[in-house]
From TrEMBL:
Domain of life: Bacteria
Quaternary context: Part of the 50S ribosomal subunit.
Name by which UniProt lists this protein: Large ribosomal subunit protein uL13
Native organism: Nitratifractor salsuginis (strain DSM 16511 / JCM 12458 / E9I37-1)
Function, as annotated: This protein is one of the early assembly proteins of the 50S ribosomal subunit, although it is not seen to bind rRNA by itself. It is important during the early stages of 50S assembly.
């Protein structure tokens, strides 16, 4: 009888994945990134171990949005005090805080635990085509 291999944290091999967001739909980019960060694309996936890879997203401002999301969708935050609810439109977030927008969206697709926060640290988002991780990308392939 064949037993399932359970991966230990020190046995995990991490690769680097480059996602070019230019011309792709925002949600499709995020699901691909979340899959790589979680490690579900690997045959050795273990739910209680961070076995995901590093993800670099370039051209983040050039993603496509369907419908009227750029004008209608809002992101809310609240400090806990009365009357302190603030909101930002998706178009403003994309223009001014692109990395924060991508992190918020991917964070919702990862586990809401210490493990999820650890996975999210492996996400790198850049507005343009240049990024400082070229050496790691070439080594991982």
């Amino acid at each position: 009888m064949k037993m399932t291999k359970v991966v230990k944290p020190h046995e995990v091999e991490r690769d680097w994945h480059l996602i070019d967001a230019e011309g792709k739909t925002f949600g499709r980019i995020l699901t691909e990134a979340a899959t790589y960060l979680r490690g579900k694309h690997k045959p050795s996936f273990t739910p209680n171990v961070d076995c995901g890879d590093y993800v670099v997203i370039i051209n983040a401002k050039k993603a496509k949005f369907s419908g009227n999301k750029l004008d209608d969708k809002e992101y809310f935050r609240h400090s806990g005090y009365f009357g302190s609810t603030k909101s930002n439109k998706l178009s403003d977030m994309l223009e001014n805080h692109t990395e924060k927008l991508y992190r918020l969206a991917v964070r919702g697709m990862l586990p809401k635990t210490k493990l999820g926060r650890q996975m999210l640290k492996k996400l790198k988002v850049y507005e343009g085509a240049e990024h400082p991780h070229t050496a790691q990308l070439n080594k991982g392939k």
